[in-house]
Amino acid sequence: MKEKKTVSPEYMILEAPREKKFMIGNEALAEAVKRANVDVVVVYPITPQSEISHLCGDLWVAGYIKDYYRGEDELHVMASMMGAASAGVRTFTATSGPGTLRAMEPFACWAGYRLPIVCPIMGRGIGTPANIQPDSVEIFYLLETGMIIFHVESPQDFFDMTLQAYAIAEQPDVHIPVIVFCDGFFVTHTREIVETTPDDEFLLPYNSNLSPVPAMDMEAVPVRMARDCLVIKNNFISYNANASWQQEVRAAQHRARKYIDRFMGGPLEVINPDAEVLLMASGSAAAQARVAMEIAQEEGIDVGMVKIKVIRPFPVAEIAKLCEKAKLIMVPEFNFIGWLAKEIKAVVNNNSKVFSGPNVFAGMTMPPEVIVDEIKKLLKLTK
Amino acid sequence: MSTLVSLPSSSYKVVAGPEAYLSPAAASLGVVLPENGQGLIEGEIVPEEIVMEIIAKKLLTAKNPTLFPGPLVLWAWSEKSIEKATAAQKLAAEVPGMRIIPMPDYRPKYPMINPAIEINPNHPNLTIWHNNIDVCMFIGVHCHYANLALKIIRGGTDCYTIALCGEFGHEDAMITLRDVSAEKVTKLTEVVKRVKKEAL
Fold this sequence. Notes:
By secondary structure, chain A is α/β, with parallel strands linked by helices. In chain A, 39% of the residues lie in helices and 20% in strands.
């Protein structure tokens, strides 16, 4: 292993000098993994995640990662992450589309086991007809797994949010997994300027002694495959303990809020909050909304924008307050379901002013002009 | 009833139960953990000195105060754990009638634990009920299991809970102190001694 100069997450994320590089999202992610001082990486390649699988292999060969291998499939990968993290080491994996759905059961276990695993997901189409193109539909399936979820807009976000994910996930009072979600290709394969921290500075090692649950001995027999089997006995006490456990996982999500403020500057980016029309979006849709807002403003329409960086814990109070003044709230999304609009409608008092759309999916692009046209149509309808 | 996703609200009070069929997690209702030098009293952030004063009064006026030490102080896994365990014993000795009932293991024990001699985080109410404990104090319990137990105690018993936490504290306890080291336990012991003396 390489000799490493280690620094605190506060320093690396908030204070360290930055150097501009020109790279695609997956390369930016690999730069973050390198600096995150990860112990174990297990991956299974799948488009558009495949690149990070082999870039992590390069990091292992270069001595930046202690252990690295390809799992049998995503179920194996995510179960391996569970074992490694339960034993008390820092872990990393990533997946996409069908891989995400194959791994759903371990995802829910990660949160229940209080494991601070960081897992980027490069979103793509799922199901039939088969599709590898960008789509954020996977987040809908992940919403209630108990994990923290960030939604990345750009390669810069991918670098920053991955490091922020480790800083937040490993807080003793949080200690649950973080999904760093990006819309595949739009972020993973787009080359942009990314400001990175010095490549000879690495996060302090993970300290499992601060964990809210004791690390499990995975080497001495009998190896314990699960934490405590509360569910096996059919009595009120078991049910009550299980319920209290589930509540505690959600409480950990709530505790993450103050660290989201500290390390990410809050769950939202807000531009022109007092505007008549607010575009609320996350991920690549936020990038399109940003341009649409500028076009609309040039045409004299009073438009603002809210980028939602954190999907779980959902910024309930912040969004409810922002929506109080706006006459019209539009939620453009790269998925069929419109899950973000549903989330927003659930927390806004007068939710008849929240409109889902435009929604594009299966790899279709979302030209900013389409968003602007939609704003004009809705403004006419609501007059 | 339990609230899994809710609007933050600071109006929720963490008080002795029995509170509900299923008590909510206080963090889900807007109770936030204290910063360095602070503690929580019934959900409100309060300076640490005041918290120690209230802990001392609660312990000294209890009918059956009980200390629940967990694995972090029961096993000699580091010098600091030994120091903290020793300090906790001295603290218990300063509180008249204070019992020590250990939480040696987090795994559920079937068909049931012996509530006279141990407490388990999955059904802590059994030990509280069996021993008529009116004020209890956790120390050396891993945070996840402490919160698990504190919610169940609040839900089903009238016991007043105090949590001395080595990390950032516990919203689900009625009183909590954070960053509790052997030195801080000793400081609390000194406060207990003073309050006892003042009452005489």
